[in-house]
């Protein structure tokens, strides 16, 4: 059967169900900032576990998400960054109508990024942040490989990796974006300050 691509406005918007109420978001593997949607958006969302890249066989709506949550809580994915329930929001996602808050990392306070965020028609909030000492990064070099760990050490500022440092490295155009994504995975997995604070 031949299918045709749908217009962008009709395609689902991908996210994750924050059933654990994590302050840094349901799926930090994708970045340090996230949009927290209003509860009513759940009524036009579908979910799967694990992520669709793993070709999942378990799907549901918000009224039938209990089984998906049980699967996610069983920690069947070996990497903690993969233990989220993927969400697909159907229809438009409008910042003024559908978003409770844009949640940012505190490394962006008083930065041009905060200035831009304050112009959006939704509130801005902050989570505890991501910060990874290079010493800890190198202790886990085998996580994404020694070359990626070395890149992380190279772009760190004063021995510390933050989302801002990785963003600056990406903006420089001097590094492979896929390699920087893997550097971010180190920070997301080992540098979540909300976990260090027991949140």
UniProtKB/TrEMBL annotation:
This is Uncharacterized protein. Pfam families: DUF3626. It comes from Acidovorax soli.
């Amino acid at each position: 059967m031949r299918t045709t691509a749908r217009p962008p406005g009709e395609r689902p918007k991908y996210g994750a169900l924050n059933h654990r109420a994590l302050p840094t978001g349901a799926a930090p593997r994708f970045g340090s900032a996230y949009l927290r949607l209003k509860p009513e958006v759940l009524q036009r969302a579908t979910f799967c576990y694990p992520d669709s890249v793993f070709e999942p066989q378990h799907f549901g709506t918000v009224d039938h998400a209990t089984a998906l949550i049980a699967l996610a809580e069983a920690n069947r994915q070996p990497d903690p960054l993969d233990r989220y329930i993927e969400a697909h929001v159907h229809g438009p996602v409008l910042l003024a109508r559908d978003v409770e808050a844009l949640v940012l990392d505190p490394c962006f306070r008083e930065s041009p990024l905060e200035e831009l965020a304050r112009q959006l028609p939704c509130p801005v909030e902050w989570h505890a942040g991501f910060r990874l000492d290079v010493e800890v990064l190198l202790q886990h070099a085998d996580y994404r490989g020694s070359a990626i760990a070395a890149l992380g050490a190279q772009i760190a500022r004063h021995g510390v990796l933050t989302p801002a440092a990785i963003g600056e490295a990406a903006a420089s155009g001097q590094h492979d974006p896929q390699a920087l994504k893997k550097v971010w995975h180190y920070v997301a997995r080992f540098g979540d300050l909300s976990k260090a604070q027991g949140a």
